[in-house]
Amino acid sequence: SGLLLVTRRQGMASSPMSSPRRVGHRSTSSDNLRSPQRSMSASPCTTVNANSPRRQQLESSNRRVRVFARVRPLMRSDGHMHGMEVIELEEENNIVRVCTKTGEEFVQEIREFTFDGVFPTCTPQERIFKEVGLPVLKECLSGINGTVFAYGQIGSGKTHSLLRQGVRADTDNGGDAGLLSRLVIGLFAQTNQDEEARYDVEVAALQVYNEQADDLLHPLHRVGGGHNLAVQDGGFTPGLTWLRCEQAFQALNTFGQACGNLLYAETNMNRASSRSHAVFQLQVTRHSLKPNGTTTRARLCVVDLAGSERVKKSGVKGKHFKEAMSINRSLLALGNVVNALAAKKSHVPFRNSKLTRVLDGSIGGNCRTAMLVCVSPDAVHMLETICSLEFAARAMCIEGDSKVNRSGSVRQGSSPRVERDLKHSLKRVQEKVARLEQSLGAAEGEAADLQQALVHAEVRAEQFQALAEARSEEAQHESCRARHAEECAFAAAASLQTVRQDSAEQKRALEAHLSLLQTEMNSMRLEWAVRTAVQQDDCHARVRCNRLHGPMHWQKP
Length: 557
Known about the structure:
Layout: E1 21-23, H1 53-60, E2 66-71, H2 76-79, E3 87-90, E4 95-102, E5 107-114, E6 117-119, H3 125-141, E7 146-152, H4 158-163, H5 179-193, E8 197-208, E9 213-215, E10 243-245, H6 248-260, E11 264-265, E12 273-274, E13 277-288, E14 294-304, H7 311-314, H8 319-342, H9 354-358, E15 368-375, H10 382-395, E16 406-408, H11 416-549
Parallel strand pairs: 1-5, 2-6, 2-15, 7-14, 7-15
Antiparallel strand pairs: 3-4, 4-5, 8-9, 8-10, 8-13, 11-12, 13-14, 14-16
Helix pairs in contact: 3-5, 5-6
């Protein structure tokens, strides 16, 4: 069948499969894709087959999301490990087949998906534009909102398909230019050929980075201007910069400036990996030049979604790891929105992520949506490829209610029903005006009360200010007295220190004098003791003499 077979082991010759099974009906839940080893008996899924009644019903309805699949070439960085392609395309029936393997016996199975169009690796950009972008552009020129967005894993070729630059406004050969540039060229080419209307074209661009919306055309974007914008219901972003363009080259240069502000980083899977979701918007207003003509206004969005990535494969760390987690969370929220829209649930969780809030109104609802799912043919990325294709298959079940956004005067000869509707509308408007006037009177009364309260507050503020000034003067006087007391205390402390020093010197002098007197006293005591001893010896000698010789008689000389 032309399908490449998976070898049993690397280095061994490929062996043919014995009765390969083509499983066209399997569960679309990503939980079944966590391991390549799966049971051959699978439950039915919501994949739309070419001949199923559901498929015919969707094809008969022109309101659903149109989905196209594009396979990028096998890169050397992908083929260094396995080098095997697991995707087969059947362009005639718009079928994508993915070859997988299960079990130890190497049993092959084939997952089959059917879309509105499939593009092989050699498809030129011009064909992508004609089949994916041009129908949306024609709807936009007629006043219907349109969206083209690319989905796929990191490094699958989304940015190349949408934002690739290189086209010139004065040439027909766009080379490898992406959808955005070709849409701009096609838009102005169509408007220049329409001689029955005048067109106003405005452009804007934003990115969703780490769960915040940033204006890519803000003059101070690189220093933080226009960051973290609020996003309201319907994807409306107040404060977003809109620039009017009258020529194609102006719009191309503007979008080129916006692309220069996008964030990219090198990973193991891509040299320039998008780290944010990029949203480019063109607002086209058509003013009919005919009498009593109408005015239509449409918005065309081109969304380059950042690719889902497995950190183990991409090898990101630090800041880029945080970016990868934010990207995966936002894509998970987008998947929940797609599931809810496909199942026609009453509640759609658009508010769970900043990305889904921006895309509110661009998927389903009043919008024609085209989706380009980009996949890699390498066996290494087989699980990511199947997940992307299943997401695209669920998106095909989303149906919208797009209509022409028309405003302007009503032509003469309108039907009574239209006049009756206009009368009811006028009555509702008059009632609304009456309610607004009543609310305005209440607001004026509240404003007068607030003015009176403001005057009273100003008087109180003046009183408090005067009191504060008086307290401030008292505080200044107290501060002066405190400084004077502090100076006196310092002087007294200095005087006391001097007295202490003088007293110490006098004490030392007295101690020295007292020591000298003590020394003299000791000397006198010693001398007195010696004299006393001598006198005692003399008296003893005389007594002994008297006892021996009798009393001595002293004679006068």
